[in-house]
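Help!! Second protein's tokens look totally different from the first
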Amino acid sequence: MEVTPQDLRNVSAISEVPEDQLQWLIDNSRLESIPKGGFIFQKGDAIDKLFILLEGEVDVKVDQNGNYKQVAKIRTNEISGALPYSRATTAIGFGETTRNAKALILPKEAFNELTRNHFELTEALVHVMTSRTREFAKRNVQEEKMMALGKLSAGLAHELNNPSSAMARSAVALKKHLGNVPEKFKRIISVKATPEQIDVINDTLFEKLTHRPENTMGLLERTEKEEVLETWLEDHQVENAYELTETLLDFCMDVDALERIYTAIGDRNFPTAIEWIENVLTTEKMVDEIQEAAQRISTLVSSVKSYTHMDSAPERTATDIRKGIKSTLTMMNHKLKQKGIVVEKYFEEELPEPKIMVSEINQVWTNLIDNAVDAMDQQGRLTIKVNRDGNFIKTEIIDNGEGIPKENLSTIFDPFFTTKPIGEGTGMGLEVVKRIIQQHNGDIKVSSRKGETNFTVCLPIE
């Protein structure tokens, strides 16, 4: 196959390049055939040649934890490989042909003559490079967002599952419990008691319900009190005393309280009265459990709403920085708990509210906190400080992990730089963070040593 300038007119990126420059490209290149399943480049190869795919297709794949993921496809009449002024040096993936292919290959050694003597061809190839970089950055930013969303979604699903399961269990238990109420009601209604006796029971019971005391007993103290209460109930002819003690003690209904009821109502009616009291307290406890679980779900939903700022227009809004950080911590609570990380918050009170893009700034907190958690071992310590510093709100996110190597500090915010394995990060997180901060006319700095890495974000108040 002999390649002509007319053949290269089918390559849209260089279709308008003068014919003499296309002929130079042909004269300084070699035509290479690659069979189906062959590699036009492999991981680790030097990026030292430009190629134009004249026939066939090439799947570009990267190795992610032992699995190959297709990240791009090079089609017929497309340009890839080395390009003028590109700083790429080593291939990070594989280029495998999906059918027999032919490629026109220009070695990088010819680039000096190319850029010196062939302006239109150079301009077209540089345009290919900028378009490729823009698409690559766009795709990786999207992947970074999807990774962050995946992490938050997994944690949020776990956090929502716990209270929703608790509600379901409590609802089933409450339904079963209420099924036993008619028999107990029949027994209590048959009790012949004076208004004064009923008042004693009501006063004692509803004092515990209305002003439910906080149960601060330790395990040892509670075990001892359960034994004492169970023995006391058995001595006063109460059947199934063991089953009643747990609920009675949950409401701090101790021997002294039961003595008052026993003295008022007498030994004959006392077992029935205690059974009814325990029944009311059990119902109250189950309702409390359902209410608490529902409140936890409501809090999580509120945090999601605050985190995404989904009920507001996408514009700068005067916002309390601390609120966004708290919502982010709630969203990431599952990951923090998994590692047993202690979070220390030092928030200055009555801070001014800078005008910010809330969702974007929350993405900053997510990336910085997520990186901090990844950098720490089990039982780590995350410290977050927020205070006013002149005309700025200064936020410090500090972890006690291994620290960032000194040689990486100068490139930590560069696009695609990452120390994480393939599949765990795209290297766009901190680049996105810096870009968002700069869009807010703010500043971000990092300092690191073993045991202390500090990312400091300053956002202008005005």
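Here's the second one for comparison:
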Amino acid sequence: MNNNRQLDLKFPKGGFMVVLLAVITIIAFSKSTETIKSGQAGVLYKTFGGGVVTDEPSLGEGFHIVAPWNKVFVYEVRQQEIFEKMQVLSSNGLEIQLEASAWFQPQSENLGLLHKEKGENYISRVIQPAIRSAARSVVGRYTPEQLYSSKRDVIQEEIFVETKKILDKQHIQLNEVLVRDVTLPATIKSAIERKLKQEQESLEYEFRLVTAQKEAEKQIIEAKGKADANKILSASLTDKILRDKGIEATMKLSESPNSKVVIIGSGNSGMPIILGNQ
């Protein structure tokens, strides 16, 4: 009798059911909530309602109540980056090692379609194959020399454009493709460097020739200008002008305190004859 009273004190009538219901409620509540962190979005899967929800916006950041029989798949929707190191062939069949990276993010408005069609492994299923395919297509148009020197920026832009065409149809937003390194076979690289050096030396030599030619032309023009000026001056100097200039110079000399000037008649040219010493 005492034992029964003790049991009654420990477990009031209906107490076990209350505890059980409380536990069930806590578990159900925890299974019915989803917290989406910053930079993420959720795709709702309705077990009894048609599967993946594609005709409604994805679940945004914050706290959400979800029926316990449904499920939420969480995706990173911020910009992400992947690195690719691949072997590709140039236009003449030489093997080139290309290192590139891509900046991308899922299209938030189509996140449900991305999950339904591609799944959570969409990076390896879609993005990586797209970049590799575009890189092989683009690099195959150029020679190793173009890849090594002048066409790096052009190649990068073309890979971006071709990759974006593919990913836009796969519900993925491509922001940028960066070609980080192009590695050629050592022998090809050395040959290209020698050729570039020779071309640079040739350009420098041509520049010196052009500079020398221009300098020679300048001197010819200056000499011709002086000759033409002297010719014009000679033509303008008549006997009368020369005689007047001579008389003017003689008068200035006669006024000099350091000179004794004697003028005797005139010379054959009509100019005065000047005798004297200092």
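Reply: Different proteins will give different token patterns, so don't panic. Residues 186-236 form the longest helix (51 residues).
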